[in-house]
Specification:
Length: about 350
């Protein structure tokens, strides 16, 4: 069924960018789990718009209201539902029949026979990552109590790369407002974003995600592989156009002997000499840190006039598009990627240990 994700837990995200509210329902959470509400609020603030010159000026508090499944500070085991009110929509910037290049306007028009809410991208908007981050914050708290830590950083923006980082370093900087290792690279990335903003343009980048403490044996070969599930979740985040694990596409140019992660026994345990596969072999976790990267395209809405179509007249037109958009979505996509990873790992955790 479209719009519902998960095997052991079920997640449904609902609402539109300019509607009354957006939200999420989580079914399958175990009962009796204490939630750190302030911790969830901190995660939401990381993604919230209007708090940086690098993001959209749309000002949304992203305050959430839990309306079910949570009682006296603990989960009840029944579906947990939270809503986030929209408060700063500016719908006049959007045209129903003139499609924005690069956005989902055209395919959504055909999928829903022209009845979808087009304002701000409607249900396809990046605004819908706010409820994803809410759900992921809960997942991160559950996993953290079992020794699993998750984080992400900006690996690059506009072709400017951050320094190489260990999974531990990725997690250490993940909570920063601009999570990078090399502060000089951060300054150059920031300058590139602001220059694009000044031109009315946008830039994309790469996010690196990591998880520590994931035991060996999670995932199944083929259709329920750890890589398949994580990749599917990452591609649910608007603007993500690529995913690679470990050394990813570099492996295609390497020999088998060079690309293999060799092993040895040390102190009575199996130790790896490298982690080129990103902690996964055969779709199953091997006990090493999970490491993967996602490619995030530049925000499609730009100030320049572009060629597109007016579907109501079936004519080719030239149009410039308004609206308030991020000149680079990468910084606010970092917590969304973390949230998605956390939900995937929680789903596997519930399958392995919670019966």
């Amino acid at each position: 069924m479209g719009g519902i994700w998960g095997s052991r837990i079920k997640i449904a995200v609902f609402g539109e960018s300019h509607g009354a509210a957006i939200g999420v329902t989580l079914s399958g959470l175990p009962p009796g789990i204490t939630l750190d509400i302030e911790g969830i609020e901190r995660e939401m603030a990381r993604r919230a718009p209007g708090r940086s010159p690098l993001s959209t000026p749309r000002a949304e508090s992203d305050k959430f209201e839990i309306v079910s499944g949570f009682f006296e500070g603990k989960t009840t085991g029944t579906p947990l539902c939270a809503i986030i009110r929209n408060g700063d929509a500016r719908s006049a910037d959007y045209q129903r029949h003139v499609f924005r290049p690069g956005h989902a306007d055209l395919p959504v028009y055909y999928k829903y026979n022209g009845f979808a809410d087009h304002r701000g991208g409607g249900h396809s908007s990046g605004r819908l990552t706010a409820p994803l981050v809410f759900a992921g914050a809960i997942a991160k708290q559950i996993l953290a109590r079992r020794g699993i830590r998750i984080g992400a950083r900006i690996s690059g923006i506009a072709g400017i790369d951050d320094a190489n980082a260990t999974p531990e370093q990725v997690i250490e900087v993940s909570g920063d407002a601009f999570p990078v290792i090399d502060k000089t690279a951060a300054a150059r990335m920031t300058e590139a974003v602001l220059e694009a903003k000044e031109r009315g343009d946008s830039v994309g980048g790469v996010i690196e995600c990591a998880a520590l403490g994931v035991p060996a044996g999670w995932g199944d070969p083929f259709f329920d592989s750890l890589e398949s599930v994580i990749s599917g979740m990452m591609f649910s985040i608007p603007a993500v156009k690529g995913v690679e694990f470990g050394d990813g596409f570099k492996l295609a140019g390497m020999t088998g002997s060079a690309s293999n992660d060799q092993m040895r026994v040390e102190d009575g345990a199996v130790r790896f000499l490298s982690n080129r596969s990103g902690g996964i072999n055969g779709g199953i976790s091997n006990g090493q840190p999970l490491v993967f990267r996602v490619a995030v395209r530049a925000t499609p809405t730009v100030g320049a006039e572009q060629t597109t179509v007016d579907i109501s007249k079936m004519e080719t037109v030239a149009a410039a598009f308004g609206g308030r958009h991020d000149p680079c979505i990468v910084p606010r996509a970092v917590p969304a990627a973390e949230a998605g990873l956390a939900l995937c790992l929680l789903d596997f955790y519930l399958g392995e240990y919670v019966k």
